């Protein structure tokens, strides 16, 4: 089979120039978060049903759903790609992608990331490999790898190339997640200047503002760009979620609940895991702030989560399904999910399964801790989370997303009458998040009758007055 340009500067084995261009259009849609990305892939496969890399990409897309059912479809796509590549001469780059999907389907996400990084050594403008490596590093909780993965390819790119803005936006997010806020914000803002619809870069700037406690500025940033980023696929609800975090820090609870209903949880019937992650974490945080969110909101999430007891593609997601079940009071199903996670972590045949290892190392402790919190045993929750708190990053997600687990630990230490741990945690937290009124108020509670308690609570009042 001949090789044609995909329109993004790379060659792809395909039956026609039209098919290759359709594949490049699929990659463009994936990177830009367009709502028609699936349709673009269908168009590529219609133009060439025997394009090996298109079938590999179909497998990628199935794996990105994060469910057992879609993983089976990914296995099928992998089989088709292998069969085709046994009769069609494919390029080394395409073979690298096939190797990556093979590893991913075996549960070895680390191996898949290694394969994508191997592709990038020879093909640094392969943004499909780069974006998927970005995903893998993100769900490994490794901001340094996210940063360096993009940094390695930057010299091979310039502003004339398609998707350059998306590239530097990814770099901006990697910089933010590795703690370089100034450069991260600068790169992500440049990306948004190039393409205001680049929701990943809009959200990268929001992450910087969240980490630095720039709450009013964060609201204005997201609102000002809403006409652009709100056109993307369901990731737009995650950008709305970021806005709710800023309002939450300002104690604007009515606004948070309104945005929850109108945006964050507005498309739950689509059953996308990120939507459930956004919604469950937000409701749990609201309750940590003392807000009654109403049983109907938890019930809707619980109805979705009960269908995902066997989905262990990402432990980060499984923990949020558990949040939803616990919040909805579905204790039997919550217990079943925890036991399934325990069996998954301890089961045979999981030697290469990246997520099984993470589940065993830290996921089960968090799952048992959340269960303890919801069954009225905060002291047990503290005893479970405290020893693994520096390993929580391994479950993946961002600093902002994982912060809910630290907030759980703080709240449990206060309710479990362990003032030593509460004071220690909140001393850390107020240093790291000096503009968080919730943290200062809780610090005042932890300090009890100590003279410093008055100052801590006064700082909280001052921050809220400024809001």
Helix and strand content put the structural class at mainly alpha
Largest sheet: 2 strands, antiparallel
Helix content: over 70%
Strand proportion: under 5%
Coarse shape: globular
What kind of oligomer do you see? single chain
N→C terminal distance: 63 Å
Note poorly predicted spans.
none
Radius of gyration: 23 Å
Order of helices and strands: EEHHHHHHHHHHHHHHHHHHHHHHHH
Number of helices: 24
Strands of the largest sheet, in order across it?
Answer: 1-2
Mean pLDDT: 96
How many β strands by DSSP? 2
Topology of helices and strands:
Layout: E1 3-5, E2 11-13, H1 17-32, H2 37-47, H3 52-64, H4 68-87, H5 92-105, H6 109-122, H7 127-138, H8 143-151, H9 164-177, H10 181-194, H11 199-211, H12 215-229, H13 235-249, H14 253-264, H15 273-288, H16 295-305, H17 315-327, H18 331-346, H19 354-374, H20 378-385, H21 399-415, H22 419-432, H23 437-447, H24 452-466
Antiparallel strand pairs: 1-2
Helix pairs in contact: 1-2, 2-3, 3-4, 3-5, 4-5, 5-6, 6-7, 7-8, 8-9, 9-10, 9-11, 10-11, 11-12, 11-13, 12-13, 13-14, 13-15, 15-16, 15-17, 15-21, 16-17, 17-18, 17-19, 18-19, 19-20, 20-21, 21-22, 22-23, 23-24
